[in-house]
């Protein structure tokens, strides 16, 4: 599914990117059906930040909401990109994993409960290092368990994008939805430049960044299932669409032979123009269960 | 990290909670809820030390106009007095919605 | 903090399987072998350096596109083969420098390749295969998420050359805008930030810390001991559920991950309200 281009409606669009995590999550639910769980007034904050002189946030940068999407039971977990770069700490990771485990438990009992994860994150919160990394591993396990019953939808809208260990969580999703502003990749440009030099990746080259990691590229090469405008009603509509669609026949991360075959044909002797991948991989892409 | 506690007299009972803001760089979150005893209490946690007087000035100004018997918790990451005041007003607005 | 040398993986792969090579058609940086282990016939997998790897950013023990794809293939092979029979153990021998940091990798979607390998390991676990990670050297970040972190049980050597962490010290200092000294000081007080495997063990994620005198040149009786520990871990995995809840149930976890437990109990309590 692709989006319409910008039109005269641009002025009237309701920006999704400008919303904070709480408002983004709420916007995806059927009107009046959502409530937040373990919210700020439950005061479950990070035990690790204050001792390092960092002010904690009472929801640890992760919002969990439960309700209905397209009339079906659903849970939404949304990372707040403005708090510590949306990074995963012990508590924010645990909230996501616990929410998915409860959705699985309900699904096993016959109340199929789908999930949407709003990922604005750089990955592991280094101030919690090994607990953040472990939390991501556990979240990945819970995604694998839940996606047998119900779709797990990844929505990355920007401005932070989805990087680091959490990009693997995105890779496990049933469907990936992105805006043009969003980016998805394992390693950001600064990290690559640090590790392998400016020739490998000039982190100031914004055009290059979006050409490789941007939503339009990921969609065009078949690594994302939908490209949406920064427009809240449109985003909610696409989420409803994939919720109703259900579990794909084969998940993208399970299509190993196809992916491996594609890697084998790549000429690694030089850098590539990312646009080539749109033709190479895009049309019969690793999307929606296609082989 | 600094912790600052302030108390103010209050007249009016408040029965709704409100939460606004994000603990982003230059921003803060405010949790407002009905107070426990009489009066209003404010608990501030900030990662920028040495501005106790500024905090008191902002809260004094706020409570000169607001008389709810509330407990206010603030988690701050370097917001300016203007942003602090704005968030407090937003929290009140939400609690009176 | 120890240096990554890229030797230990191959040493332990050979010690535990008697074999030294990749399977036919695989990149030389992924060693796979089926070998007896206790009463089972286990599949062992290990990522090693290959200075002639096709991808220039994956030549020193990094887990890159081809490594992740080969791991995914060889693990899925076991799932498929054992579909209607006894679920063989899968042993990930872990000594990896990091994920591969390259423009080619990002363009071709290494995040998905990594997810595919983790998917394979996790799906094997959910299907009933005992998946054991044996950390003999370094286990960093995306590389560990890809190869090892979906295991039922994690074993590690009690040795300075062993490190499990989210980011190397110098890079972590840079990103968090601290000096390496400041970071080391913090890491001493804050267990999840520590680079010491003994502090990692306090987090309750590790099944067992194993003592080996010289992990680079192990003696025969030490190899046999590690095999026995793997067999015990396999039995322990088979006796429990297929999910990762054991990582929260240890005594250490109850102390060091009490916030995680609080989150879980509160969320469950509120799930059904109204």
What descriptive keywords fit this protein?
heterotrimer; A: 291 residues; alpha/beta; 2-enoyl-CoA Hydratase, Chain A, domain 1; 10 helices; globular; disordered C terminus; C: 274 residues; 2 domains; seven-stranded mixed sheet; 44% helix
Task: Give a written overview of the molecule.
The complex is a heterotrimer of chains A (291), B (97) and C (274). Chain A is of the alpha/beta class and 291 residues long. Helix content of chain A is 35%, strand content 13%. Chain A has ten helices and seven strands. Chain B has a single domain, classed as Ribosomal Protein S5, domain 2 (2-Layer Sandwich). Helix content of chain B is 30%, strand content 37%. Chain B is built from two helices and six strands, in the order E-E-E-E-E-H-E-H. Chain B has helices at 52-65, 81-95; strands spanning 2-8, 12-13, 18-21, 28-34, 40-46, 68-76. The mean pLDDT of chain B is 96. Chain C folds into two domains: 8-242, Alpha-Beta Complex (2-enoyl-CoA Hydratase, Chain A, domain 1), CATH 3.90.226.10; 244-274, no CATH class. Chain C contains twelve helices and nine strands. Chains A and C meet through helix 2, helix 3, helix 4, helix 5 and helix 9 of A and helix 2, strand 5, helix 3, helix 4 and helix 5 of C.
CATH architecture of the largest domain in chain C: Alpha-Beta Complex
Assembly context of the chains: heterotrimer
CATH architectural designation of chain B: 2-Layer Sandwich
CATH domain topology of chain B: Ribosomal Protein S5, domain 2
- Overall CATH class of chain B: Alpha Beta
Shape of chain C: globular
Unreliable segments of chain C (pLDDT under 50, ≥5 consecutive)? none
Order of helices and strands of chain B: EEEEEHEH
What's the topology here?
The complex is a heterotrimer of chains A (291), B (97) and C (274).
Chain A: H1 21-27, E1 35-37, E2 62-69, E3 72-79, H2 90-108, E4 114-118, H3 129-146, E5 152-156, H4 166-172, E6 175-179, H5 189-196, H6 206-213, H7 215-220, E7 226-228, H8 232-245, H9 256-264, H10 276-281
Parallel strand pairs in A: 3-4, 4-5, 5-6, 6-7
Antiparallel strand pairs in A: 1-2, 2-3
Helix pairs in contact in A: 2-3, 3-4
Chain B: E1 2-8, E2 12-13, E3 18-21, E4 28-34, E5 40-46, H1 52-65, E6 68-76, H2 81-95
Parallel strand pairs in B: 2-6, 5-6
Antiparallel strand pairs in B: 1-5, 3-4, 4-6
Helix pairs in contact in B: 1-2
Chain C: H1 8-17, E1 30-37, E2 40-47, E3 62-63, H2 65-81, E4 90-96, E5 98-99, H3 103-107, H4 110-127, E6 131-140, H5 141-146, E7 153-157, E8 163-165, H6 169-175, H7 180-189, H8 197-201, E9 208-210, H9 220-238, H10 246-249, H11 251-256, H12 258-271
Parallel strand pairs in C: 2-4, 3-5, 4-6, 6-7, 6-8, 7-9
Antiparallel strand pairs in C: 1-2
């Amino acid at each position: 599914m692709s989006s319409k281009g910008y039109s005269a409606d641009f002025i009237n669009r309701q920006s999704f990117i400008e919303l904070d995590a709480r408002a983004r999550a709420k916007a995806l639910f059927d009107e009046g059906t959502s409530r937040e769980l373990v919210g700020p007034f439950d005061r479950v904050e990070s035990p690790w930040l204050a001792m390092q002189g960092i002010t904690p946030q009472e929801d640890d940068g992760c919002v969990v909401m439960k309700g209905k999407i397209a009339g079906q039971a659903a849970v939404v977990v949304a990372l707040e990109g403005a708090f510590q770069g949306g990074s995963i700490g012990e508590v924010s990771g645990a909230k996501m994993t616990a929410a998915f485990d409860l959705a699985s438990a309900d699904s096993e009992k016959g109340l199929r409960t789908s999930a949407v994860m709003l990922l604005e994150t750089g990955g592991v919160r280094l101030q919690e290092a090994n607990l953040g990394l472990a939390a991501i591993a556990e979240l990945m396990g819970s995604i694998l368990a839940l996606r047998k019953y119900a779709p797990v939808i990844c929505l990355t809208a920007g401005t932070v994008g989805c990087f680091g260990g959490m990009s693997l969580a995105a890779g496990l999703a049933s469907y990936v939805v992105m805006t043009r502003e969003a980016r998805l990749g394992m390693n950001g440009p600064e990290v690559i430049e640090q590790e392998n030099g400016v020739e490998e990746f000039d982190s100031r080259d914004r055009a290059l960044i979006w050409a490789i990691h941007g939503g339009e590229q990921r969609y065009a090469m078949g690594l994302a299932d939908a490209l949406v405008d920064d427009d809240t009603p449109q985003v909610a509509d696409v989420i409803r669409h994939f919720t109703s669609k259900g579990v794909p026949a084969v998940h993208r991360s399970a299509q190993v032979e196809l992916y491996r075959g594609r890697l084998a044909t790549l000429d690694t002797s030089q850098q590539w123009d990312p646009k080539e991948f749109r033709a190479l991989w895009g049309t019969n892409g690793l999307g929606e269960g296609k082989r | 990290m600094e912790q600052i506690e302030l108390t103010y007299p209050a007249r009016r009972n408040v029965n709704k909670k409100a939460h606004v803001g994000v603990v982003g760089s230059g921003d803060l979150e405010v949790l407002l809820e009905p107070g426990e005893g009489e009066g209003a209490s404010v608990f501030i946690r900030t990662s920028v030390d040495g501005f106790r007087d500024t905090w008191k000035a902002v809260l004094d100004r706020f409570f000169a106009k607001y008389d709810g018997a509330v407990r206010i918790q603030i988690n701050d990451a370097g917001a300016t007095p203007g942003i602090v005041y704005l968030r407090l007003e937003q929290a009140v607005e939400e609690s009176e919605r | 903090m120890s240096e990554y040398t890229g030797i230990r993986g191959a040493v332990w792969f050979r010690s535990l399987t008697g074999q030294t090579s990749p399977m036919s058609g695989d990149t030389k940086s992924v060693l796979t072998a089926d070998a007896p282990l206790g009463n089972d016939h286990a599949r062992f997998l290990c990522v090693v350096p290959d200075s002639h790897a096709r991808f220039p950013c994956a030549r020193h023990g990094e887990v890159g596109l081809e490594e992740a794809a080969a791991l995914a293939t060889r693990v899925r092979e076991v799932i498929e083969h054992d579909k209607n029979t006894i679920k063989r153990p899968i042993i990930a021998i872990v000594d990896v420098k990091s994920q591969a940091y390259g423009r080619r990798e990002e363009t071709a979607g290494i995040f998905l390749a990594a997810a595919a390998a983790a998917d394979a390991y996790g799906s094997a676990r959910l299907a009933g295969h005992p998946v054991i990670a044996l950390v003999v050297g370094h286990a960093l970040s995306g590389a560990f998420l890809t190869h090892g972190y979906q295991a039922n049980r994690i074993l590690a050597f009690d040795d300075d050359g062993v490190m499990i962490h989210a980011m190397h010290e110098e890079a972590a200092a840079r990103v968090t805008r601290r000096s390496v000294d400041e970071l080391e000081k913090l890491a001493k007080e804050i267990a999840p930030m520590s680079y010491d495997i003994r502090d990692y063990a306090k987090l309750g994620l590790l099944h067992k810390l194993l003592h080996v005198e010289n992990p680079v040149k192990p003696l025969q009786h030490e190899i046999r001991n590690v095999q026995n520990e793997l067999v015990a871990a396999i039995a322990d995995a088979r006796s429990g559920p297929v999910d990762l809840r054991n990582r929260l149930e240890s005594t250490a976890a109850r102390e060091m991950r009490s916030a995680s437990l609080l989150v879980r109990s509160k969320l469950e309590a509120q799930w059904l309200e109204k």
